[in-house]
Amino acid sequence: xxxxxxxxxGVAPEVTAAxxxxxPVVALESTIITHGMPYPRNVETALGVExxxxxxxxxxxxxxxxxxxxxxxxSADEIERLGSDRAPMKVSRRDLAFAIHSGxxxxxxxxxxxxxxxxxxxxxxxxxxxxxxxxxxxxxxDVSADLQELARTDVTVVCAGxxxxxxIGLTLEYLETLGVPVIGFRTDEMPAFYTTRSTYRVSQRLxxxxxxxxxxxxRKLLGLAGGVVVANPIPAEHAMDREVMEQxxxxxxxxxxxxxxxxxxxxxxxxxRVAELTGSESLDANVELVKSNxxxxxxxxxxxxx
Length: 306
Ligand code: PSU
Ligand code: MN
Known about the structure:
Layout: E1 9-11, H1 13-20, E2 25-28, H2 31-36, H3 41-55, E3 59-66, E4 69-72, H4 76-84, E5 89-91, H5 96-102, E6 106-108, H6 110-120, E7 124-126, H7 137-140, H8 145-152, E8 156-159, H9 168-178, E9 182-185, E10 204-206, H10 209-222, E11 228-231, H11 242-259, H12 266-278, H13 280-303
Parallel strand pairs: 1-4, 2-3, 2-7, 5-6, 7-8, 8-11, 9-10, 9-11
Antiparallel strand pairs: 3-4, 3-6
Bound molecules: pseudouridine-5'-monophosphate and manganese (II) ion.
């Protein structure tokens, strides 16, 4: 763990100062900016999420690849660059070195953001939804690298569960196999991103950020490698109708199959089609849940320092 920069890793001075002084820092991903939302809503959202982190007493560290460097903490102008680039790269663990080498603009996935956060010494990370086991994975083998990263990298990821473009049940089984706890914040049920419920159970429910921080600390003291998922349901007033979502997801999955979309393109394609089919309501919901996760992550980062 280093708070310092190197030729390939650039940690913003504000982030370094917070880490050195043991003040709370929250990492934020950038695939959501480059591949997860349309311009300019992606940029507005990324800036808004950083503001939420600050309002909750923590320092935001948006992670991305820019100009041949892995960056921890970027400027508003750089968020604009990420959000408006015409051909950004989606950067997961396997792509990191190439993305730095190529000089391309890269949005880091949950996996790449986690491992970069760990390099910089950041313990808590907020996002919308993590990747998981895709529906039909028994044939396609499409399992997000996010899950393996959770198995090996000691970062807590606050999310709104997993989208039901994925197989939620298989994703939870896979995380159980890897030894990754999925903590439901004030819920017994795994949230499904746009909806608060999924019928699948989380591994444990905790109702306070102090309890969550305690579990994270105990894991650390025991030397248990790997991350923790905190599943924070979308605020009820922003939740979507389950039937409407399931229909859109069914249609998007059918189109992906007809068009032969696979590999790293699968998730952005499905997210894009679902957003188009459900219109601005789903985009609004997405923005709100990310902000809610940023708030909770800031509170957990603060509780970890008490
Ligand atoms: N789920 C969302 N929005 C997203 C992603 C997932 O609701 O933007 C992004 C995240 O960056 C996640 C990545 O890490 O997609 C997973 O991609 P893949 O399934 O190819 O691993
Ligand atoms: Mn995949």
